[in-house]
What we know:
The protein is mostly helical. It is 69% helix and 1% strand. The protein has 14 helices and two strands; from the N terminus they run αβααβααααααααααα.
Amino acid sequence: ARGAPFASYSHYSEFINLALGCAFGYLLIGSSARISGRTLDVRDLFGGTGRSPSRLEKLLIGFLVLGAVAVVLSTSRNGLIAMIFAAAVTAAAMQFSRRVDGIGWSIVGVGLIATAVLLALGIDPVIERFEATSADPSGAMSTRLDLIRDTASMGAAFAATGAGLGTYALSFPGFDTTVRSGTAEHAENQYLELFAEMGAGGALLGFAFLAMLFLRLFQRPRESRKPADLGLFGVLFGVSALTFHSLTDFGIVVPAVGLLAATLAGAALGRCSSDCSTGVGRRVVAMGAGLLALAALGARVPTAIRGGEGWDQYSYAEMVREDVAEAGGVGTPEQHAAMVQHAGLAQEAEPANAEVVFRAVLARWSLAVATARGFDLESPPVTPISHPDLAGSA
């Protein structure tokens, strides 16, 4: 309930913060277009200067309030802190702009309305979560600090080129010094994970891109008098929230978050098109690069479809395996046949996936052991002495 369709409420809060930036930017664009070039007083949006806001403006303001409430009720501590951080950065940038006035009072107004809604809905779970953190801050941060330390060791080991994008979950166990069940799939810090997977060069490219993006987001709205450029303040809010939240999470790898962030970044950097040369040569190069990228993505579609089908089969095999485990580990012939079938189809779809291949082999071994026991839970366990014929299967 706290994460809507997201598996993690933290990633949900990241997405909502980006959506808040979209709504805020669109609100500024529409409002600026209505006033025909004069300085936008944000108090106009709340009827504070005598101008009545339009229906669309009212809807967008309502979304801003509900979005802020959603971030708080998600109980994501970092999501809430990131939202406050982004609001402060955006407010500071707008204060230095000659195109916008009254931003401080507007933030206070939205905050007061959101607080009233939160009090009406009940804010106790949120308070309890923050109290639990403040009661034992070292315990709450211990896991992340361990991951940061060990990920830094991994990054140092692959400092030149990194371990490779997407290989963190496979490479990190060799550097994990903690005693925990399972393994970490991500570093809980996007910047350290980038360093571990792409090395120093990749990390520098990532930070250079962020620096270029923020420089554009701070400069363009101040220099331009075009209404569309005021929307960059909304992009600044969303990107600031995500940049801060990435210190303690890896939401950028979640498609809904990563694709929206990439779209906003592209829209922001694309605003320089009116200042840059757009000669025929550059257009041809840009079009060629775009077509090559599209072709590369298109070539991956069949593999992605096979991978999705393989994951479905793997999931079916895992469900049957769990049923067999709950039944004592022997199960029925039908269950084992289904497990072998689904695991085999998963292996056919993803023959290079070591985990899938291992599960397919394990399913066949489980069938051999269950057959040797006659699918009878009361039968004695299988040993090398009692069933030497299973040595080959083992």
